[in-house]
Amino acid sequence: MGKLTVRALRAVLVVVLTGTVFVQALMLWALIGGNDPEDGSLPLTPLRVITILGIGTAQVAMVCVWRLVTMVRRGTVFSHAAFRYVDAITGAIVAAALVWFAVTALNAPGQRDDPGVTVIMGGVGLAILGVALIVLVLRMLLAQAVARDVEAAEMQAELDEVI
């Protein structure tokens, strides 16, 4: 991975992480202050809590991506230490799907006249779970690469002994 790519990715991560922290702070301020009156269409307090949690899942994933990029730059990504970050990303995506399903459940009573919206929102939740499955497949590929790297190191050690 080139230096420009790493710098660009890190810049994007910093901007997005800063923005998400700002939005979380605003949501927390609105939640604590209660200065935004509810008009009755949707319960705002649960939606604010869900938004704060949902943003938190994205932040966990961004921090883990940052750590994985650092490991790539150091050449240590093909190690067992990378698994904890990939697992955390998978967990964050599953948590995001659960948060989305909570939003869907909160929104569903208001969609009695048009249940298609709820069905579409449920489909989006399933798509989010699909992303978690993709990351799980990528984890399996990482496991194979780590196993091959360990095997290659053992063969190199044996070859060094012979020579």
What's the layout of helices and strands?
Elements: H1 3-33, H2 44-74, H3 81-107, H4 116-162
Helix pairs in contact: 1-2, 2-3, 3-4
Average pLDDT taken over every residue: 89
**SS strand fraction:** under 5%
H/I helix tally: 4
Task: Compute the number of strand runs.
Answer: 0
Main sheet attributes: strand count, strand direction, barrel closure: none
Instruction: List low-confidence stretches.
Output: none
Order of helices and strands: HHHH
* Rg, Å, rounded: 21 Å
Task: Give the CA-based shape.
Answer: elongated
Would you kindly provide a written description of the structure presented here, covering whatever features stand out?
The structure is a single chain. The longest helix has 47 residues. Helix 2 packs antiparallel against helix 3 and helix 3 runs antiparallel to helix 4. Helices cover 83% and strands 0% of the residues. It starts with a helix and ends with a helix. It is mainly α and 163 residues long.
